[in-house]
Structure formats: C-alpha cells, structure tokens
Amino acid sequence: MPQAAGIKWAVRRGLSGVWQSSTSFLETRGLFLSWVEIDGAVRH
C-alpha cells in the first residue's frame, strides 16, 4: 500500500514539474515576443 502512494506521489510530482516548466517556457516566449514587438516599434 505505501508503494502505491509513493508511485502516485511521484507521478503527481512529475506532472507538476512538467506543468511548471511548460508554463515558464510560455512565459519566456511571451516576454520574448513582446520584446520583439517593442523592438520593432522602436526601430520603425
């Protein structure tokens, strides 16, 4: 029984890690795109 709980915990932890990395990737991408837009507006 403790083993099943450990597996559930590991899966949950892995999923939250994947979710955090994907959200940080999207945030970084959003910041980069907004920076590119601002840079383009400044140059033109």
In short, what is this structure?
With 44 residues, the protein is mostly helical. It has one helix at 2-43.
Q: Helix fraction?
A: over 70%
Termini, distance in Å? 65 Å
Beta-sheet strand percentage? under 5%
Q: Give the overall silhouette.
A: rod-shaped
Structural class of the secondary structure composition?
mainly alpha
pLDDT averaged over residues: 88
Q: What gyration radius follows from the Cα positions, in whole Å?
A: 19 Å
Largest sheet: none
Oligomer: single chain
| N to C succession of SSEs | H
Features:
44 residues, mainly alpha
Secondary-structure map with pairings?
Elements: H1 2-43
How would you sum up this structure, described in words?
The chain has one helix spanning 2-43. The protein is 95% helix and 0% strand. By secondary structure, the protein is mainly alpha-helical. The chain is built from one helix and no strands.
